[in-house]
Specification:
Layout (H helix, E strand, L loop, with lengths): L6 H15 L40 E5 L4 H13 L6 E9 L3 E2 L7 E2 L3 H5 L3 H19 L1 H6 L3 E9 L2 H11 L4 E7 L3 H7 L5 H9 L4 E6 L1 H13 L13 E4 L8
Parallel strand pairs: 1-2, 1-6, 2-5, 6-7
Antiparallel strand pairs: 3-4, 7-8
Pfam family, one: Usp
Protein name: UspA domain-containing protein
InterPro entries: PHOS32/34, Rossmann-like_a/b/a_fold, Universal_stress_UspA, UspA
C-alpha cells in the first residue's frame, strides 16, 4: 500500500516549484537602447554634433540670446537682463559667424568686405584670425550687462556656418534650451508698407523652426534717436508720449503665415 507523502516532503516540492518558476535565463541580455529624440528637420548623422550637457539644476532655465554684434543685439541683451532673466538662469550668448568674412549684422543684408580678386591677394588665415578676434571682443562687450547683473551665469558660444539661419535653429535644439531671445530691427514707414509689418528673415525663420519658445525684441531706431535728442536738449517736458516698444513672444508650436 502506497504511503502518503509527509508534510516536509510537500513543503519541499512546493518550494522547488516556486524556484522553477522564477528561474531566469543564464545568458546576458543586451542593454536597453536609449533613443535620442531629434527634430525631423535635423536627422542624426555622423556630421551632427552630439548634444552638450551642463550641470544645471532642473529648476533653472537655459536661455540663449542670439547676437549678431549689432545695436539690436546689444539692446536684446540689456532687455533680457531687465525684463526676462531671473536668478539662477544659465545664459548662452549664441553667435553664428558666416564662413565668409562679412561686414554688418548677420540678421540683415551683408556685403563681402573684399572682392574675390583682393581676397586671393591677401592672407586668408590672417583675415580669419583678425575677424575672430574682433568678433570675440565685440561679444565680450555685449556681455557687459550680464556681468553687471551678477545674478546669472553666462558663456559665449560662437560657431561657423554658411547658412546662419538653419545653424542657429540647430544650435538651439542641440543646446537643449528653454527659450531663445533675438533682436529684430524696427521697420520704418517706407519699409512697413512693402514688408507688411513682417519680421526679418532670420527672426521669422527662428519663429517657424526653433524647437523652443522664441522671444523677438524689436529695436526701433527712430525711438532711439528721439530719446538721444531729448536727452541732449533737456526738453522732455510737454513732449508727446513716446511709442512703447513691441516685444513679441512666440512659442515653437505657433503657426505663422509665410
Amino acid at each position: 500500500m502506497a504511503t502518503q507523502p509527509t508534510t516536509a516532503e510537500v513543503g519541499s516540492n512546493s518550494t522547488t516549484e516556486k524556484q522553477a518558476k522564477t528561474i531566469r535565463p543564464t545568458r546576458n541580455l543586451p542593454p536597453p537602447i536609449q533613443v535620442q529624440k531629434t527634430s525631423p528637420r535635423f536627422p542624426q548623422s555622423p556630421a551632427t554634433p552630439t548634444p552638450i550637457t551642463t550641470a544645471i539644476s532642473p529648476s533653472h532655465r537655459r536661455i540663449a540670446i542670439a547676437i549678431d554684434l549689432s545695436d539690436e543685439s546689444a539692446y536684446s541683451v540689456k532687455w533680457a537682463v531687465e525684463n526676462y532673466l531671473r536668478h539662477g538662469d544659465a545664459v548662452i550668448l549664441l553667435h553664428v559667424q558666416s564662413t565668409s568674412v562679412l561686414y554688418g549684422a548677420d540678421w540683415g543684408s551683408s556685403t563681402p568686405t573684399n572682392s574675390p580678386n583682393s581676397i586671393n591677394s591677401q592672407s586668408k588665415q590672417e583675415l580669419e584670425e583678425e575677424f575672430e578676434k574682433s568678433t570675440t571682443a565685440k561679444a565680450n562687450k555685449l556681455a557687459q550687462p550680464l556681468k553687471e547683473a551678477g545674478h546669472v551665469s553666462y558663456k559665449i558660444h560662437i560657431v561657423k556656418d554658411h547658412d546662419m539661419k538653419e545653424r542657429l535653429c540647430l544650435e538651439v535644439e542641440r543646446l537643449n534650451l528653454s527659450a531663445v531671445i533675438l533682436g529684430s530691427r524696427g521697420i520704418g514707414a517706407s519699409r512697413r508698407n512693402c514688408c507688411k509689418g513682417k519680421l526679418g528673415s532670420v527672426s521669422n525663420y527662428c519663429v517657424q523652426h526653433c524647437a523652443c519658445p522664441v522671444v523677438v525684441v524689436r529695436y526701433n531706431n527712430n525711438i532711439n534717436k528721439n530719446n538721444n535728442n531729448n536727452n541732449n536738449n533737456n526738453n522732455n517736458q510737454g513732449g508727446e508720449e513716446e511709442e512703447e516698444e513691441n516685444h513679441e513672444f512666440h512659442d515653437a508650436d505657433d503657426n505663422h503665415p509665410n
